[in-house]
Amino acid sequence: MKNTSNGVDIMDKPPEPSPDEKAKRSLTRIKNKIMIMSGKGGVGKSSVSVNLAIALAEKGFTVGLMDVDIHGPDIPRMLGLSGMMSANAEKKLEPMRYSGNLKAVSIESLMSEKDDAIIWRGPMKHGVIRQFIGEVEWGALDYLIIDSPPGTGDEPLTVAQLINDARAVIVTTPQEIALADVRKSINFCKTVNMNVLGIVENMSGYVCPHCGKTTDIFGRGGGERTAMQTGLKLLGRIPFDPNLVKCGDAGLSYQQQYADAPVSKAFLSIAEEITKVSLK
To answer: Would you kindly state where each structural domain of the chain is located, as residue ranges?
Structure first.
C-alpha cells in the first residue's frame, strides 16, 4: 500500500517486529544454546562459564557468552573487558569482543557506574534478557553460553521460556550440601522440559604444586554419584587451583597463563565432551 503526502507516494514501512519476534529471529542463527546453572552460590559457576567459553573458542567455534546474572554480573571483569556496549547502524547492540571467536554481553557493560545496585523485579529482568537475545548483534554462533545466577528463580526461568531448545550444564562441588541443591536444579530442568547435557564437578581436589599429592578439600565423587543416580553424564572434574581465582580477579585467561595445568586440561576435556553431546 501507499500513502500520499503532498502528491508524493510514500511506501508504507513494514511494521516493527515485536521483541519476541526479534528474539526468535536472533536464535535461528545460533546452533547450540547452553545455560550454565548451579543449585547454590560459591561453586564457581561463572568461572566455569568463562573458561568453558574460552575453551570452545580455542577449539575454533564461534561463541557468545551471555551474562544473565543481573544482580551480580561478573563476566566482563573476568574476561578483562571494560567500557560499554554501543549500538550499530541497525540500532542493535554490539557485544564486547574478547577474541576473534568469543564475544560477550552483560548488564555491567550497559552501566556507567559498575558498582551500582540493580534492584529489579521479575518483569524487568525478563525484559532485559529478551533484549540480550533479540536486540544484540550476535550473528551466527556455534554456541551461546548463558551464565545464570544460582538457584531456580526468574533468570533461568526466563531463559527456559524464551529459548525452548536451551540445554543445561549443572555445576557443583563435591560436598553433599551442594549436591542437594543440584538435585533441585535437575528437577527444575525436568519441570520446564529442559534437557541437561551433564554435570561438572568443580573444586574436585587440590593438587599440591610441590609434592603432587591430591587433597580432597571438599570431598570427592559427589558429582559422579549424583550423575549416576539421576541418569546424567558427568562431563568432567575440575581441580581446585588458587591461580584460577587470581586470573579471574585480574581479567586474565587462566588457560593462556597455565596452558599445561590440570585445570586447563580439564576445561578442554569438558569442552570436548560438550561438543560430542551437543552436536548429536
So the answer is: 18-278
